[in-house]
UniProtKB/TrEMBL annotation:
Domain Doubled CXXCH motif: from-to ranges: 148-178
Transmembrane segments: 400-419
Highest taxon of source: Bacteria
Signal peptide (residue range): 1-30
Keyword Phosphoprotein found: no
Keywords, comma-separated and alphabetical: Membrane, Signal, Transmembrane, Transmembrane helix
Gene3D superfamilies associated with the record: Cytochrome C3 (3.90.10.10), Flavocytochrome C3, Chain A (1.10.1130.10)
Residue ranges, annotated region (Disordered): 90-109
Name assigned to this protein: Doubled CXXCH motif domain-containing protein
Protein species of origin: Ramlibacter monticola
Amino acid sequence: MTSSQRSRLAASWATALALALTLVSGPALAADPKDATLSREDQACLECHAKPGLRKTLANGETLPLYIAPQPFAESRHAREGCEGCHSQIDTATHGKPGNEQKLASKRSHAVESMETCRDCHQKTMKKYDDSVHWALVKTGSAKAPLCADCHNPHATKSTKEANAADDALCRQCHEKVTQAFTASVHGTDGENLECKDCHRTHDVKAATVGDHLRGQCLSCHKETAATHASWLPNAGRHLEAVSCAACHAPNATRRVDLRIHEARGEKAAEKVGVPQFVQFTSSASGKGGLDGRALWSLLQDLSRGNGDDSRTFVRGRLEVQTGVEAHSLAAKGKALKDCATCHRKGAAAFQSVTVSMIGADGRPLRQGASQGILNSVESIGSVAGFYAIGGTRIKLLDALLVMALAGGVLLPGAHLAMKVISARRRKAADQRTSDSD
């Protein structure tokens, strides 16, 4: 409880006590021994709020239930704080009196405002939530993004562990198709009873394609992955870095190459966040076939100039599936793609769909279609460094350099050996002539 809450509690103590005493002669809830853990002040509040029919009509016509079940509240985590701990703004002398009703616009707005009360005690948790895609959506006006009260009943939560066990039904309100795909996947049928939060966490939820935290979640259970992949997959480490798990483990998915814009300052690089500049540029520069290599180069130069002299903007390529439904349609391990030719061949399907993306203000990626040729252009070589699949992208200059390197690797040693033989023969002939002249 904060110092301001404690001061308000002290100020209202006398009033609350007087109110409680006036209720002793009535059917006070304290008579029930199960509720004896509640303070007299809380029992006074429950004299009204324990009535199941108590409700309030809001400005938008919604009805807000005001009923609090005494026993669950008495056993809850918040009982020790008491009603005053969260409702310190209420004046018990006038509360409930005609003309003193609290004006509430809607259930949603009330739930959003109430989160500031949660912040008083749960600062670390709220800091995580503030950095989540859900809070970013709330700030943009989303009516569905989950709030504290959507997962936690403050009048019945018994423990932090219980409170974190958010029902997946809440997730289904926005992610119904994804949930259906997950239920039919290997994770939904293997008996492990995984929940959304097991992979996506609870409070600091990120958009699925942001960062590499989901790969980390996969590896947290599949700890042997690096070793098992290295036993058969060439350059396994690079594949695990540049290819999403679902790209191979959802064999029926449609794949694409996404070039995510990053910002580097010194030794650190992070996904760049921004909206207007990216949207304006890509809208004006995108032709019928999407951004080309020259447009990408210009965009990166423009973004770098806006960052200052100590930073640079670049892209990192990643092979991924195109939808969240596909990302959750994971098959059994034996059905995963293992044929290198799926990607490493001319005209590979995965390289025919290319996007350039940046994190938007709501925490989700903004995507702009790009021409397939963006991976082949000279202008893109510096931008997509580290993401080159022989036979898949076919950047001609890189092919030429590769041929030159291979030729050099063969011809130079051969030429050196030939010169050595010729030189030896010449020396021998010269020595012979010298001997004959003597």
